[in-house]
Amino acid sequence: MSPIDSRNLKPSDLARLLNSTPLGTVLDERQLYRHRVQAGFRIGDGRRIDLFRYIAWLVEKRREPKDVIDPAAAYEAMKEKQAARNRMRAEAGRDIGEMPPVQDPLRKAKAERNFRFFCETYFPLTFCLAWSKDHLKVIAKVEQAVLHGGLFALAMPRGSGKSSLAETACLWAILYGHKAFVCLIGASEVHAQEMLESIKMELGGNDLLLADFPEVCHPIVSLDGIANRCSGQLFKGERTHIGWTATEVVLPSIPGSQASAAIIKVAGITGRIRGMKYKRADGQTVRPSLVVLDDPQTDESARSLSQCATRERLLAGAILGLAGPGKKISGIMPCTVIRPGDMADSILDLEKHPEWNGERTKMVYRFPSDEKIWAKYAEVRGESLRMHGDLRRATAFYRENQEAMDEGAEIAWPQRFNHDEASAIQHAMNLKLQGEAAFFAEYQNEPLPEKGILDEGILTADQIAQKLNGYRRGEAPIAVTHLSAFVDVQGKALFWVVCGWEDNFTGYVLDYGTYPDQQRQYFTLRDAQRTLQHVAKGAGLEGSIYAGLEALAGQILGREWTREDGAQMRVGLCLVDANWGTSTDVVYQFCRQSTYSAVLLPSHGRFVGAGSKPFHEYIRHPGDRVGLNWRLPSIRGKRTIRHVLFDANYWKTFVHARLAGTMGDRGCLSLYGRSPEAHRLIAEHLTAEYRVKTEGRGRVVDEWKMRPDAIDNHWLDGVAGCAVAASMLGAVLPGTGGGGSFRVIKKTIRYSDVQRARRG
Questions:
Q1: What is the CA 516 to chain-centroid distance, rounded?
Q2: How far apart are CA 695 and CA 544, in angstroms?
Q3: Cα–Cα distance between 73 and 66 in angstroms, integer?
Q4: What domain count does the chain have?
Q5: Range with the poorest average pLDDT among 277-286, 358-367, 400-409
Q6: Cβ-contact 601, 591 below 8 angstroms
Q7: Residue 166 in contact with residue 153, Cβ under 8 Å?
């Protein structure tokens, strides 16, 4: 091994030499390379290193004075520098950049006060067919409502684009600054949200709007569909304050924009509407100036007198008052008449609501005069559908006879027909042949009178609501000898009725309600806001029912009811429904333990159909009490309290027959007061079921069934239960053959039989 020349070492040899000491690794080649670069030729010739000169350089570097640096300050400076870089990067990404120019200023200016031109220019795919005369009338009225104020209700045939016109009117109003706050109201909030989604699609995806309204659409497009970017969006370093949610759209605040900070908000007609307002970033509070109500009723609400009345009141009060005190709101309401007398039918009536300036259009204004040839067409159409599944033969027949078939017809929109049809007249007649009732309702806005599913003896809800006797609420006529009550038990609330009866079964509904009191004229069990659980805080289901029954009994059984002559009366018998869910045992327990147990009875209404065993065929056991389609079985089993069973079908028929009686006649049933409006809800309950006459076991009986469109029938059960209780108290309708006596069926027992039994 050759000796090491310490003054002429390779860098690698130097590193190995220094790392060969007991100290271990003190230097690596990368660190040595940095030192060679810093020291230059002071420690070697570039290829080799002088160890002694290298050590001297290291000693010199170590002795150099160093700047005193605060580590904390250095760290904070580094953080601030990085934060500044991040801010610059973020702002560069959030800023929408320069605003594109308006592509066609003249086109944009022309559409500002011309709604028809706006529709045709910016929505050519939506309004692709030529306008009908009805469309032009509707467009003119929409334009009037937006530009000059006022209200406008329109009913157009299904598929005529009335909802599209309303949505387009909303866009027109805010893009040009005609209205700063538009409220979209639907039959439900979900329906209104669907309208808003359609508007949002146009704002974010309509290229023509983007071209001429960049101040609105460019910031929206810049979001890339990510709503979370709204809060940070900038234009020239300032926030745009854009909003983009499922229930609200706030257009960007852009200097010089007519639509700056305009807002569109949604709500359901029965939801929270009152007090709707919005506070802008500049501190200004704005209220709705245009309301668009698209089909504010449902099939269900249209068939409910109370719901129609409720929605009309909401329309006149909460909705038209959205603009605030002393200000009028503009309104557009596309609607469909579902049934005669519904909300839409009432609003469109110029006599009832002239303020809405209603316009009711039709698909067909005059039907073809040759009915025979159209009857032949109906046959051909049916054969074509059955054989081919399409209208090829029907359309061929129509083309051959078109002149004769079109004679006398006047169609509203000649351009409206399907690809497999030859004209709008053929299209309209096809719709009519599909379903006449639906055609007149959906396309003519003249729904046919509903063919009652009840027979002629059953009154309508309107007729029942007007069956008034003029007595004050809770007051009994002088001829009343019996008071009865019924409580229908439900999980959320208790429905109760108190009736007064003469001996001949002339009846009077003295009072009715719910516990807890809903404090509303119209409600359903489904949307009950005050429930038994809310009142009995901390109690379970059964505990809340018990507490509710106890409180209600005090209200209706613990009070005295005043008769017309000043006499004080008390309820003689109160039946409590024990059929609901798991409430049976609770009802029995309450009736047994209550302070008013002497007049309380659990009850079970039984469905006795044509195939069922009628009540009069039941074997009477000792101790049974029987009457007109009701019986009290003798006490057996664990429930040591009597209960009543009754034929629910019979007593519902009985009640409706009493309601159908003429005022003043014997056996008539009437409601208190003088206001039909106050009884709309109970009238709906009383007509919530329809009867079907069925045959079986050699007899014909009424079977009562729930209407498909009905919601609640609890007061129908209540009035029927009151009639049962009246029969038990002794009321008798002449001719029924039933008495109200509580006859105890006793069996004669001989003493010899008793002795024989003991010996046996």
A1: 24
A2: 42
A3: 17
A4: 4
A5: 277-286
A6: yes
A7: no
Nearest to 229 by CA among 398, 95, 135: 95
The Cα–Cα gap between 742 and 556 comes to: 23
Q: How many CB atoms lie within 10 A of CB 315?
A: 24
One-letter identity of residue 173? A
Coil, strand or helix at 267: strand
Q: How confident is the model at residue 758 (pLDDT cuts 50, 70, 90)?
A: very low
Q: Which residues pair with 151 in a beta bridge?
A: 331
Q: How far is CA 620 from the centre of its chain?
A: 51
Domain that holds residue 660: 461-744
Strand partners, 332: 152, 292
Out of 340-354, 507-521, 641-655, least confident range = 340-354
Both 298 and 438 in one domain: the answer is no
Residues 58 and 200 in one domain: no
Place of tokens 């067909």: 364
Predicted local confidence at residue 11, as pLDDT: 87
Amino acid in the structure at residue 362: K
Q: Which residue has the tokens 């065929």?
A: 617
pLDDT tens readout for residues 368-408: 999 899 999 999 999 999 999 999 999 999 999 999 999 99
- For residue 569, which phi and psi values (nearest 5 degrees)? -125, 155
Closest CA to 18 of 42, 1, 35: 35
Name the nearest CA neighbour of 366 among 406, 394, 327: 406
Q: Give the model confidence (pLDDT) of 130-164 as tens digits.
A: 999 999 999 999 999 999 999 999 999 989 999 99
Q: Is residue 85 part of a domain?
A: no
The SS3 call for residue 744 is strand
Tokens describing residue 174: 């805010």
CA distance 222 to 143: 31
CA angle 72, 77, 78 (to 5 degrees): 100
Do residues 19 and 45 share a domain?
Answer: yes
Looking at the domain assignment, is residue 403 inside a domain? yes
